[in-house]
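The instructor's notes for this session suggest beginning with a concrete chain rather than abstract definitions. Hand out the sequence below and ask the class to guess, before any prediction is shown, which regions might be ordered.
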Amino acid sequence: MAAAEATSTPYPLRFARLVKIEHTVFALPFAYVGAFLAVDGVPSGHDLLWITVAMVGARSLAMALNRLIDAGLDARNPRTAGRELPSGLLSPAAVVGFSLVSLAIFLVAVWQLDPIVRWLWPIPVAAFVVYPYLKRFTWLCHLWLGACDGLAPVGAWAAIKGELPWQAWALGAAVTFWVAGFDLFYALFDVEVDRRQGLHSWATRFGVADVFRGARGLHALTVAALVAAGLGLSVGWLYWAGVAVVGALLAYEHAIVRPDDLRRLDAAFFTMNGVISIAFFVFVLLDVL
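After discussion, reveal the predicted structure:
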């Protein structure tokens, strides 16, 4: 029954599931944060449109490459064996084609924005290709993933202003630490399988208890980086309220998951992080209006 239901899934929906399109909510709001703070107001509709298209194209490319490179690993993991490539719902050729289309969409969007990003676009693409291989060699893969997402506010700032001041990098650092911190939690889903397959993560290297210490430290750095960015910008009290909300939500995320009780790990990873990104963007939007 499950197999029949899977094979009846419309073809476009298979690609949406491949890239987990709903998780765009993690990075896209922070790209908007970079754009809004760059101009200390509301960017033009043209810039917002093409930043959105660039983000969707880049994220789709990153996820498709990740699934392609990890297809063999996913097939040997019971949690991921049902994904589109291991299960045969999508062929490697189809995903390669999807990746090329995503890259084309990204490049078309980049060429509508400030000329500086026409020179910088290979950086995120190279980062996307490198990331899936890192888990085969180092537990620092979490920080690399965070840095990939951290390029969102940095790239959006450059796409509008044609410059990269330290405040943009501070926003990028905040996203880097935030994503790396919750990716430490995400690795707990597969810690035993990763050990059997010889893969590297913070959990396999330092143990489950240290995942929580590492995530707390990274999320403290998230708040510190947001504070640093705010101190370098002409922001109002609503920005600071947004930083406080981010800190409170991160504290709640850590409160609902413990080393001896991972039952709410899904809620901590998916629900709370979506709330964090959207909530902070809303506060930034209100602050610049």
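Then share the key points. The radius of gyration is 19 Å. The CA atoms of residues 38 and 233 lie 9 Å apart.
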